[in-house]
């Protein structure tokens, strides 16, 4: 897991984001969720997908939700902002968690949005703690998917719903590397959708919703062409999170989607309420 941790550990991340905001002329006192979206929602279809997931989640004000693999917390904050929920985000990367906390303070959302550096495979919470959970494009780095889902199941209250938006494998292998979540195959653990569904059920969940989002992902990346020469990167973007080869990674993701090497699944899994 060490190489995955270091992949997601850029230096001085918070200050580089602040520099980016300054360069595009944003006053720090008036920064909004939308201003940060180019850098803090690190998943396919960004905040559009997050808003769809919020609708699907049906989480309501006052609930306490866990965001597993929250990155720098863009969707954690958006979830809290749009639903009124308290949300706790955990992530393997200390650098991401540091930036997540400081950005949350910048937006003055720290009362309802908290963060903790931790592994999805050993969640530092008691059984039956959360009303709901969500995890956005993290499973790709997790080899032991059953343990991750068992942990989510354990910390959810009975009847609690887990919203998952995850990249899976597809008919064809191998993947073209690097991709946004992995420099090479030693960091990427994709299983086809059917196997993903089986492991969710094996952890004890019932599946309430299952939506294949692959076509939408293909459309979102359809414009990607093979990068040539020095990349022309914006002041604020996910290259700050995973490096300046982001255009090659996005181009490879486009190829992997089009060649049916990866798929994208949105699902809601429910911990049964036996009472
Ligand atoms: C592609 S990013 C997605 C981040 C965030 N969910 C978002 O949508 O902006 C994948 C995240 O998963 C985290 N991650 C990978 N393996 C993890 C693990 N075992 N436990 C906790 N977080 C993990 C990484 O540190 C990274 O922040």
Task: Lay out the secondary structure.
Elements: H1 2-7, H2 13-23, H3 33-40, H4 46-57, E1 64-68, H5 74-83, E2 86-91, H6 94-106, E3 113-117, E4 130-136, H7 145-155, E5 156-169, H8 193-202, E6 206-212, H9 214-221, H10 239-242, H11 246-258, E7 262-270
Parallel strand pairs: 1-2, 1-4, 2-3, 4-5
Antiparallel strand pairs: 5-7, 6-7
Helix pairs in contact: 3-5, 4-5, 9-11
The structure holds S-adenosylmethionine (SAM).
Biggest β-sheet, characterized?
7 strands, mixed
Write the CATH homologous superfamily: Vaccinia Virus protein VP39
Distance between the termini: 38 Å
Order of helices and strands: HHHHEHEHEEHEHEHHHE
- Describe the global form: globular
CATH architecture: 3-Layer(aba) Sandwich
Quick check: average pLDDT? 96
Total strands: 7
> How much helical structure, as a percent, in the residues?
25-40%
Structure description:
This protein has helices at 2-7, 13-23, 33-40, 46-57, 74-83, 94-106, 145-155, 193-202, 214-221, 239-242, 246-258; strands at residues 64-68, 86-91, 113-117, 130-136, 156-169, 206-212, 262-270. With 275 residues, the protein is of the alpha/beta class. The chain has a single domain, classed as 3-Layer(aba) Sandwich (Rossmann fold). A 7-stranded mixed beta sheet has the order 3-2-1-4-5-7-6, sandwiched between helices. Strand 2, helix 6 and strand 3 (113-117) form a beta-alpha-beta unit. Helix 3 (33-40) runs antiparallel to helix 5, helix 4 crosses helix 5 and helix 9 (214-221) packs across helix 11 (246-258). The radius of gyration is 18 Å and the shape is globular. The protein starts with a helix and ends in a 5-residue tail after the last strand. The relative contact order is 0.16. The model has no long low-confidence stretch (mean pLDDT 96).
